[in-house]
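Need the bound structure for dihydroflavine-adenine dinucleotide, inputs here:
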Amino acid sequence: MRSLLLHLSESKRLAPLMMKNPVSRRVARRFVAGDNLDDAVAAARGVNQARQTASLDMLGENVTDEASARRSAENYLAIFDRIAQERLEANVSLKLTQLGLDLGTALCEELVGKIVTHAARYSNFVRVDMEGSAYTERTLGVVKRVRAQHENVGTVMQAYLYHTEQDVRELLEIGCRIRLCKGAYNEPPTVAFPQKSDVDANYVKLMKILLPSGIYHGIATHDPAMLQATKEFAREKQIDREQFEFQMLYGIRTDLQKQLVREGYRLRVYIPYGTDWFPYFMRRLAERPANLTFFLRSLVPRRS
Ligand code: FDA
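Answer from helper R.:
Posting the output first, comments after.
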């Protein structure tokens, strides 16, 4: 089911149907702050009031023309302006295929460079999300080259990939900030652990490499076992709560989000917004069978 949903998340036919459907729009709102930047700002304000920080993500991926890539970049510049105007405790997450990675690395690198330079004026930070494994090497190349000019950019490492440990070690050598997650795409067993238990074990292994590195990393998960392992390891190694942050997605396990803050941990909430929510929404359905059941039930009209 997970593979099927992830496969469908790339469907160019299903996307417009789902995006027009009022029920899927309503269910998607559980995971997406709204259609526009005002909605994201309102969500970030709420998150900040709850003593959490935010990362704003303008949804969109795999643009097919240069004009769209340039428009996305302009939007990201405006997001940093707005974060500063509103005095939000927030940074930005973005995807390279939204900035033209499918059209060529040079265009994408130029646009990321502009965004990171703009963010640096506000002493703010850009997180480059990690997409499917076909993009990993190119993403790392762009991040490393842009980071050589401005240090306020980091990326994401996915525990399900066999190659991640080596990539993590290389990023640590240059001092790069990393968000550790399990990985959300459909990957073959030639590149990724097929078993969840192996992904979880690798997640813990990687967390134990990241935390003592002296670099500020994000431990992104809703999994109580991963949270517990991180807390225990930090305690054992006397790693201060200010030296890393937990990260979770908007609308997911808000009970755990509040609990972490109560316990004195730093928590950043990833806030996606925009009209292009279909692939993001499908990945969230794929992560949890109960989400799919809820969605399918919502589609069936209730008898009065
Ligand atoms: P796991 O999937 O084992 O879930 C543990 C528990 O969390 C579940 O039992 C359930 O209670 C809850 N949960 C998890 N997903 C849920 C959902 N969709 N709905 C409801 N409950 C859910 N991936 C990627 O490939 N590239 C990236 O750049 C990012 N970026 C990113 C940022 C942040 C802040 C987070 C938290 C996650 C990502 N991800 C990501 C997604 C990540 O790879 C992964 O798919 C999800 O976080 C789910 O994995 P968990 O670690 O939560 O564990």
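Comments: The longest strand covers residues 267-273. The CA atoms of residues 23 and 301 lie 10 Å apart.
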